Amino acid sequence: MTTASGGGTASEESTASAGSAAAEGSAAAGRTGPEDILATEVFSAIQGEAALVGTRQIFVRLTGCNIRCAYCDQPEALEKVPGPCRIEQTPGRRDWKTVASPLGISTLVALVDDLWGALPHHSISLTGGEPLMQGDRVTELARLLAEAGRPVMLETNGTLLGAFRRTLPWLAYVSMDIKLPSVDAEQVRPETQRRFLTAAVESGVTTWAKVVIGPSTDLDEFDRAVDMVASVAAESAGAPMGSPAVGLPSGGIPSAGSPGAMPEIFLQPVTPFAAVASAPTPTQVLELHERALRRYPWVRVVPQTHKHIGQL
Ligand code: SF4
């Protein structure tokens, strides 16, 4: 992205996790023209995770990721290389047509338009892989979608800050993963994630943080992740946590939603896949939820519901 797409500065890249700077820096290199974007799938489906669970979205799965989580269920989308892209022709029918990726960004927008025209959707999910690996191309994609009146949700691993800042003006929702090394076996720098979350919250875009929890979740890591969200929320609201000024409850926690600039945390029990053999036990989930709630009130547990109902 620091090449053809004119991406982030050295200082931005220096904040990234191991591998992130190189990933963002090389994001636009080589095989694609500036009008092209690498994609793996475009389809209509039911969002199964976090704040928009149950809504109908058009998923645009972009290719390439700068990290390798142990539980990743999209191994075919991780290498940022040309390949086939399957496009659903009718929303929800799985009547795939396979085209060559990269695709023109305008072509991709037209494909999304076709699906949206055939069925009203809640929003577009830009997912992956890590969408921000494609730098200014994903910014342009988000811009065109937003200008067409489509609310855009970015699903991101929260590591590529330069591309994120440029894309933020076109986003309606940010779903940011907070990575725990004891669960994902990666080494994402907490400070990178803090800066990323701060940028999202301070922009005013509706933002939440997703934390995948497993049977061996390290409690210190977990606490630090929750504390990080709490401190970003407090700093962004300009008031300490617990102050009425930021709307924290005095007598209980609402059933859903969080006030103002408070990003919710969604604890997502890991779904066993690849190198991950087991999910946390029901007791572990309850204990982690309790542990989080004692540090920050806006925490919900939402598993990957689409997998429970046989959806993509
Ligand atoms: S950040 Fe997401 S896409 Fe990348 S390896 Fe992790 S789970 Fe997979």
Overall description:
This protein is an alpha/beta fold and 312 residues long. It has one domain (10-247, 258-308): Aldolase class I (TIM Barrel), CATH 3.20.20. Helices cover 31% and strands 20% of the residues. The protein is built from 10 helices and 12 strands. The chain has helices at 10-14, 20-25, 105-118, 135-147, 161-167, 181-184, 190-203, 219-237, 282-293, 305-308; strands at 36-37, 39-46, 56-62, 83-88, 96-101, 103-104, 123-127, 152-156, 173-177, 206-213, 264-269, 299-301. Helix 3 packs parallel to helix 4, helix 4 runs parallel beside helix 5 and helix 7 packs parallel to helix 8 (219-237). The longest helix is centred in the last third of the chain and has 19 residues, at 219-237. The two termini are 30 Å apart. 49% of the residues are buried. Iron/sulfur cluster is lined by residues 65, 67-69, 72, 74, 78, 128-130, 157.
Task: Note the topology.
Elements: H1 10-14, H2 20-25, E1 36-37, E2 39-46, E3 56-62, E4 83-88, E5 96-101, E6 103-104, H3 105-118, E7 123-127, H4 135-147, E8 152-156, H5 161-167, E9 173-177, H6 181-184, H7 190-203, E10 206-213, H8 219-237, E11 264-269, H9 282-293, E12 299-301, H10 305-308
Parallel strand pairs: 2-4, 3-7, 7-8, 8-9, 9-10, 10-11, 11-12
Antiparallel strand pairs: 1-6, 2-3, 4-5
Helix pairs in contact: 3-4, 4-5, 7-8
